[in-house]
Specification:
GO terms for molecular function: glyoxylate reductase (NADPH) activity; hydroxypyruvate reductase [NAD(P)H] activity; NAD binding. By secondary structure, the chain is an alpha/beta fold. The protein has twelve helices and twelve strands. The chain binds NADPH dihydro-nicotinamide-adenine-dinucleotide phosphate.
């Protein structure tokens, strides 16, 4: 008898087809709803007799999975896994696979795009130009911040953090400082990056990029006290997870011009259709597009597919969290 697989978000048709050739495939599309109970119930009903799940962007833990009798693996089409209840999956012996590496460079590109756009006010001045406000040569009211030769502070010198550092060091001659749980000499040496405490990094950096994963220690890592340490010309970029930054504190810091600007790809609540942040000029926002290029999303889908198939055929996935 074929094993059963649930697809819980959109995946590329090519991999859906391949899955259908090997497994009994069920697609669920739990609609975004404020009534979390409904969404959870849809998932609970769908997983009763499944062996594998593939998708992204869903909270999955006991409330959604306790009906699952045979679940062997959740193959996440993402590198981040903060939406999965690791302790529960471990207790149940359910493997969690993910897709690191293939999205590193694309996400670093996104971070740099946000950094440049926020510093040079590209999105804001695009609107200004379209509105017909370019009636004479631009004045100090439209000036931005230089990027080259400045100090970039990277919080979380992991794969994406290092790819951002490489762009900054070789492309923009930036001075790199970083903070993490431990010094990473083998990575940092290539960019002459200096290891600092979080407080030192915030005080010294012209640009701060957040590239940590979301975990119990990084939730609201940047809040009121941290904004108070930053320079008034500093630009903050977040491509990690929204909850790493206290959004209310960020709003206050931007509104009071405690920092110059922010570039954000991720938010505490997603999708985000309204926010006080949207009222501010000194912010650039994107809808969680860190890895969203055709080529990279294809590579992520392929890797997640491979992880799933390996596990369901009795082998180890290429990349798994636990
Ligand atoms: P990595 O695991 O390679 O990097 C995460 C880094 O964060 C590591 O260096 C880790 O340190 C550090 N870190 C973790 N906890 C702390 C802490 N408490 N204090 C300081 N540093 C900490 O992951 P990636 O670089 O591949 O991805 C990073 C995150 O980016 C993902 O987890 C995901 O949430 C997000 N992401 C967002 C995307 C988007 O679309 N916007 C796309 C892809 C990823 P250590 O080395 O010691 O473990």
């Amino acid at each position: 008898m074929k094993k059963k697989v649930v697809i819980f978000s959109q995946i590329f048709p090519e991999f859906e087809e391949k899955l259908k050739q090997q497994f009994d495939v069920v697609k669920i599309d739990p609609k975004l709803s404020d009534q979390l109970g409904d969404v959870n119930q849809q998932i609970r009903n769908a997983v009763v007799d499944v062996h594998g799940m593939i998708g992204a962007g869903r909270v999955l833990g006991q409330a959604q999975l306790e009906t699952a009798q045979h679940l062997e693996i959740i193959s996440s089409v993402s590198v981040g896994y903060d939406n999965y209840d690791l302790a529960y999956l471990k207790e149940r012996g359910i493997t969690l696979a993910h897709t690191p590496h293939v999205l590193t460079e694309t996400t670093a590109d996104t971070a740099f795009g946000l950094l440049m756009s926020a510093a040079r006010r590209i999105a804001e001045l695009d609107q200004w130009t379209r509105q017909g406000q370019w009636q004479r040569t631009v004045a100090p009211a439209q000036f931005g911040m230089d990027i080259h030769n400045k100090t970039l502070g990277i919080i979380g010198l992991g794969h994406i953090g290092a790819a951002i550092a490489r762009r900054a060091y070789y492309g923009f001659n930036m001075n790199i400082v970083y903070h993490g749980r431990r010094e990473k000499i083998e990575v940092a040496d290539a960019f002459k990056a200096q290891f600092l405490s979080l407080q030192e990094l915030l005080t010294q950096s012209d640009f701060v990029v957040v590239a940590v994963d979301l975990n119990a220690q990084t939730r609201h890592l940047i809040s009121t006290q941290e904004f108070a340490l930053m320079q008034s010309h500093a630009v903050l970029v977040n491509i990690s997870r929204g909850a790493v930054i206290d959004e209310h504190a960020l709003y206050q810091a931007l509104k009071q011009k405690q920092i110059f600007a922010a570039g954000l790809d991720v938010f505490e609540k997603e999708p985000l259709t309204e926010s006080p942040l949207f009222e501010l000029d000194n912010i650039v926002v994107t809808p969680h597009i860190g890895s969203a290029t055709q080529a990279t999303r294809y590579a992520m889908n392929k890797l997640a597919y491979e992880n799933l198939v390996l596990k369901l055929n009795g082998a180890q996935p290429k990349y798994f969290v636990q």
